[in-house]
Amino acid sequence: SAGTGKTYLATAYAAEQLYYKRITKIIITRPNVESGPSLGHLPGELEEKYLPYLMPFLDTFNEKLGKTFTDYCLKSKDIEAIPLGFLRGRSFKDCLVILDEAQNTTPSQMKLLLSRIGHNCKMIIDGDINQCDIKGPNGLEDAIKRTEHINGVEVVRFLDEDIVRSPMCKKIILAYNN
User: What is the pTM of this model?
Assistant: First the structure.
């Protein structure tokens, strides 16, 4: 459900894991599905173009780690943001990967991401199937069906009762759901 804090929870957990050195790196990715201008039309290098997608994460990292440490981690690539389409050929080890807005992946994009898992890698994949902005098969829904029976894979489903963004947000989401 929208407003349940999926991105916040994933980011806060990742910050804690990095802070206590349980991992050496955080990788953040999102599918390149825009509701406004595309990345190609924004000025600057790829990192600058991807910055708007990072704002929910940066807010939480700044809250949990402090702005100075967050900025250091971004410069040293201990926190790295990469568009989903640029992950081919990568292997993830000793890190935590967050795939945000996973409902906007295709099954082949999800397979691409999941096949990057290496030694000591955790993935947090969040999304809301009801907020899908793509046409055709949904990668999140497909991945859940294929993997939820695998030992080590956990699926958490939030309900309307879990909406925490604000009382007004909850009322609006419930109005749309009914």
Answer: 0.85
